[in-house]
Amino acid sequence: MNTPSRAEFLAKTKHYLVPPGEGVFTVHTASDKRENLQRKLFGPDAVKDKRVRELWEKSLETTLPQAKCVIFGIASDAGGGIQRGANWGPLFLRETLINSKDDLRAYDVGDVRVIPHLLHDKYLNDETIKKCRQALYGSEGIALPVSPLSIAYDFAKSFHEQFPAKSMFMIGGDHSVSYPIVRAYLEAKKAQGKKVALVHFDAHTDLLEERLGIDICFGTWTSQVIPFLESPKHLVQIGIRASGKERMHWENKFHHTQIWAKEVFDRGANAVADDIVAQLKKLDVEEIYISFDIDVLDQEYAGATGTPEPGGLSPHEPMLIMQTLFENFKIGGADMVEIAPQVKSSAVKQIEPETTLMVAASLSTFLIQAMGSK
Ligand SMILES: [Mn+2]
């Protein structure tokens, strides 16, 4: 396989992405947050002087090659379906992160360009693809994808080819955005000969094979990435509690491991973490990807999400599990998804979205630091 040159990678990246915080196509909504983020990233005058794009493009050439861990946003919620709003996750979570932590040891590569009505190119006809190519790239003949998940996949694939040792922390987005990123990660690691596993925190299984005829969405992405794992045993799901079917149903169907929230409460996070480590060591796993749906947490901590659920974990439980995993494996990739900061749940008494964002920021900081250090 021929790896494209750095120049080709940069040209593609400038087509596919926009500067950090610009993933939602709007001028005014949340502009205070976007400008705050961009001033902190690119300097106090960058926004006023309209130099954000120029400085971001320059940073792709100078700062990106030095970084160990890269932050990447996919502001798409077209794969959600009960309560939208996770398109604002990348901007709001980044702004919380940058306000609370100066030295994140990560480079922010930007956001995928998102046409909010699209999900994946395979659902589009040629006419629509042409029109969207014209809108995004100024030419209907250019052979580039147009839907957020298709762009994200090609970007992640090129990223891993270009920088095999770097890791990516992706911020969603509804959970469908993990499909392209996890798939690209698994394919890249397979090509590198690395043994990897997927650890998935969620209140829901996301194991439907399709939902209303759509095979890539927030309810199906996990079943869609299983074929890219070495075996289904390389998938561990933690925190499940809102499912129409029992644990046995899912484990018998997919032959992976599920740990429901109740088991974490009954046995304790440390015992659960030790079991996962033992299982993955037996499979000779070296590296893990952590996909984190914020709704794995109880709605008391994560009310600003599409489907808040009671009876969930407290933040210290996934934190303990992730710390134990990090002591034993490299964390090669991770994501934080389903934060919908404009969503207010009437069932939740906490101040939102601040509670959800603060908790998500502390878990994200751990993951980013972990990926930046090994
Ligand atoms: Mn999910």
Structural class: alpha/beta
Name the CATH homologous superfamily: Ureohydrolase domain
CATH class call: Alpha Beta
CATH topology: Arginase, Chain A
SS summary, helix count = 13
Shape, please?
globular
Bound molecules: manganese (II) ion
Biggest pleated sheet: 9 strands, mixed
Task: Report mean pLDDT, rounded to a whole number.
Answer: 96
Helix-strand sequence: HEHHEHEHHEHEHEHEHHEHEH
Q: Would you count the extended β strands for me?
A: 9
Helix percentage:
40-55%
Strand content: 5-15%
**Would you identify the CATH architecture?**
3-Layer(aba) Sandwich
Distance between the termini: 27 Å
Major sheet: arrangement of strands: 1-3-2-4-9-8-5-6-7
The low-pLDDT segments are: none
